[in-house]
């Protein structure tokens, strides 16, 4: 298996700004640790959008198969955390899986 990332899996979700800090803590406790154990790298972004806050999680993978093994099958399928329906304005219907064309790390 290659140790160089060739694929990025990008998830986006929005929450109300008033509970964004609480959701961030929940993501860091529940959603991010499994990725840290399996992906080559993980990034979590946060953007304030007035009444809402958007979170973007990007995980990096050596190939589609390694990503599929970790996600339990279809990496295109969104895997919602148990409390996402409580926190998120709407449940994301998709994740983006993008081939990395340039990586200058």
TrEMBL record:
**Any idea what this protein is called?**
Putative enzyme involved in biosynthesis of extracellular polysaccharides
